């Protein structure tokens, strides 16, 4: 049975038409370029600016407002719009003592509900929570001239080189933290120094953020996977078949790009396959090194080993040995026949077991087969027409039957599998 879903009524807009607020929201988005991440609004007013920003972006917006009546009114209106607690949250509190973690805000905005009469303490707090490496504060000249807003920001320690003023606003773009380190390779840098040269991290340590990327795509630490790498306020994590980028200062997931078998295990002996610089992320898998754009995750270039690959036809069986360790090895034999492509898998393992045959075969003994039938010049990334993944579970000690489960890929061919358990696997 399907239980009914009851959702609160949502108004198209709980506010009267206000072209001024809509224009301000549009100007903020256009001039800052910040459309995702965490936004802090200083002074919620009636919640209208937060509403207009949420409608024009993917921002998660927090409003801080000292006036209890304004807080209640903003919450009511935003709840009616279906945004409160989902995209927008309004907190009651002081603007000169913000109860938010340092560096969390990708964007800080103010509107007509904000006044710069707070003194230096409010400006110091605003700058404390603004994200380094490109976080933007847009102080709109709604309640005060932009020059006065810039003077207020300067009183809180905002460097003049990070500020720009116009008739519409005072804008701050925060630079990198002075003394902050980076970790661009498996052991800190290309020289394997194991030291980031960070001058800021001190005891006692405190939690800054928690959340994604989580364990779903990540290789267990017991398998000794590649270390995350970080530079310019971004943290890059290599999962089993995915590279994930998150904001190093607040944990917001920036992008995720799927790459086949990019996660490397036992790096203590195999070495790392993952690095980053100011503009790019590099990940080696198989005979290819991918260069991804650090900001978007898009594949920019593929570097290949400069050797001529062996070519062969499949009119006769071709056998390839796969040796992982003393207890896990086998062969793959492939041949093209009139009926289709035939793959014969032989597992050498004294205890073939898999308790997750139906739900998640990769948690037990199985063959993970990746097929890429594209021309060599078009290969790169797991997804695309002509690529697919198959997970084959052989006969095991629990169940003397062979089965398969489709993996990644937009389309999979018709498959027939058969097999039996032997004395050797």
Task: Tell me briefly what this model is.
The protein has helices at residues 19-32, 48-55, 68-80, 120-129, 146-155, 267-270; strands at 36-42, 58-65, 88-92, 107-110, 136-140, 163-165, 169-173, 229-231, 234-238, 242-247, 253-258, 274-276, 280-285, 288-293, 299-304, 318-325, 328-336, 341-348, 367-372, 387-393, 403-406. It is an alpha+beta fold. A seven-stranded mixed sheet has the order 3-2-1-4-5-7-6. A four-stranded antiparallel sheet has the order 8-9-10-11, with no helix packed on it. The chain has a four-stranded antiparallel sheet with strand order 12-13-14-15, with no helix packed on it.
Defining traits:
425 residues, alpha+beta, Rossmann fold, 3 domains, seven-stranded mixed β-sheet, four-stranded antiparallel β-sheet, elongated, Methyltransf_25, WD40/YVTN_repeat-like_dom_sf, SAM-dependent_MTases_sf, Methyltransferase domain-containing protein
C-alpha Rg, in Å? 27 Å
Tally of individual domains: 3
Write down the overall mean pLDDT: 87
Alpha-beta classification: alpha+beta
**What is the 3D form?**
elongated
Distance between the termini: 43 Å
Number of strands: 21
CATH topology of the largest domain: Rossmann fold
Going across the major beta sheet, what is the strand order? 3-2-1-4-5-7-6
The helix content is 10-25%
Helix and strand succession?
A: HEHEHEEHEHEEEEEEHEEEEEEEEEE
Using the coordinates above, name the CATH class of the largest domain.
Answer: Alpha Beta
Quickly count the helices: 6
- Hey, roughly how much beta strand do the residues contain? 25-35%
Examine the secondary-structure arrangement and name the CATH architecture of the largest domain: 3-Layer(aba) Sandwich
Main sheet: strands, sense, barrel: 7 strands, mixed
CATH superfamily descriptor of the largest domain: Vaccinia Virus protein VP39
Unreliable spans are none
């Amino acid at each position: 049975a399907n239980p009914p879903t009851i959702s609160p009524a949502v108004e198209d807009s709980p506010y009267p038409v206000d072209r001024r607020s809509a224009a301000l929201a549009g100007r903020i988005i256009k001039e800052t370029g910040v459309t995702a991440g965490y936004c802090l609004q200083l002074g919620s007013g009636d919640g209208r600016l937060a509403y207009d920003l949420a409608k024009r972006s993917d921002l998660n917006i927090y409003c801080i407002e000292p006036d209890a009546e304004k807080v209640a009114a903003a919450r009511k209106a935003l709840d009616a719009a279906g945004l409160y607690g989902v995209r927008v949250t309004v907190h009651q509190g002081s603007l000169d003592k913000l109860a938010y973690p340092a560096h969390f805000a990708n964007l800080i905005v103010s509107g007509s509900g904000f006044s710069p009469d707070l003194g230096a303490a409010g400006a110091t707090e605003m700058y404390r929570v603004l994200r380094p490496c490109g976080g933007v504060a847009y102080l709109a000249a709604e309640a005060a001239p932009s020059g006065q807003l810039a003077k207020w920001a300067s009183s809180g320690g905002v460097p003049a080189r990070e500020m720009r003023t116009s008739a519409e606003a005072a804008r701050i773009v925060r630079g990198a933290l002075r003394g902050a380190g980076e970790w661009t390779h498996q052991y800190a840098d290309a020289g394997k120094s194991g030291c980031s040269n960070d001058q800021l991290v001190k005891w006692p340590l405190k939690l800054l953020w928690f959340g994604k990327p989580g364990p779903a795509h990540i290789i267990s630490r017991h398998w000794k996977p590649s270390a995350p790498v970080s530079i310019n306020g971004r943290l890059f994590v290599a999962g089993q078949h995915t590279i994930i980028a998150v904001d190093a200062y607040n944990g917001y997931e920036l992008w995720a790009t799927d790459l086949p078998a990019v996660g490397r295990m036992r790096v203590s002996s195999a070495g790392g396959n993952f690095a980053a610089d100011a503009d790019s992320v590099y990940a080696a898998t198989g005979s290819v090194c991918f260069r991804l754009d650090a900001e978007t995750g898009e594949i920019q270039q593929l570097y290949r080993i400069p050797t001529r690959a062996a070519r062969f036809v499949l009119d006769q069986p071709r056998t390839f040995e796969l040796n992982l360790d003393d207890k896990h090895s086998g062969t793959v034999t492939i041949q093209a026949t009139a009926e289709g492509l035939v793959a014969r898998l032989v597992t050498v393992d004294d205890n073939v077991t898999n308790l997750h045959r139906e739900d998640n075969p990769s948690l037990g003994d199985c063959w993970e087969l990746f097929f890429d039938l594209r021309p060599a010049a078009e290969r790169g990334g797991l997804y695309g027409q002509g690529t697919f993944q198959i997970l084959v579970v052989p006969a095991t000690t629990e169940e003397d039957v062979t089965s398969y489960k489709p993996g990644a890929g937009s389309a999979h061919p018709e498959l027939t599998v058969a097999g039996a358990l032997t004395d050797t696997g």
